[in-house]
Write a structure and sequence with these properties.
Length: 148
């Protein structure tokens, strides 16, 4: 099998998606590296109708647990120097709805917000590579913008 082009950022996002409101699932097309969201609302082409029954062509992307996503936020807070931002973000993680509280608190600290996105993107990139390696998918990194 030839390596397929994979957008690591997109794959990382799919790994941490968790389904959202539409409760969709993600699959990686092993023929071309395309990520395919599947939900009850998706209007998919005929070739994807039995996507879950073709694991040799479409690899299911098992979403990471919310606990793992929470751990990434904790790890980020641990990188911050002592100060107001670190205390506020650590406190946000102890509140009800910690994901929302964390994101809302980041608006008060623009520099840390930008640093958070870089930290999160790097973590998701590494998770995407681990996913590909664990599933023995031959890949090359796709470049942006996507090629048609």
């Amino acid at each position: 099998m030839d390596p397929i082009p994979v957008h690591l950022e997109e794959l990382g996002n799919a790994l941490y998606d968790g389904g959202g409101i539409a409760e969709h699932r993600w699959y990686l097309d092993l023929r071309n590296g395309e990520l395919i969201p599947v939900s009850e609302y998706a209007d998919l082409p005929e070739e994807y109708e039995d996507i879950g029954e073709q694991p040799e062509v479409f690899l299911y992307i098992e979403p990471r647990s919310s606990r793992e996503g929470f751990q990434v936020m904790e790890d980020y807070v641990d990188t911050l120097p002592e100060g107001e931002a670190r205390r506020a973000l650590a406190r946000a993680l102890r509140l009800p709805k910690p994901f929302r509280s964390f994101k809302d608190t980041l608006f008060d600290f623009p520099e840390q917000r930008e640093a958070w996105f870089a930290f999160q993107n790097q973590h998701q990139r590494e998770a995407a590579i681990q996913f590909l390696e664990a599933n023995k998918v031959p890949w090359v990194e796709a470049t942006w913008p996507k090629e048609p």
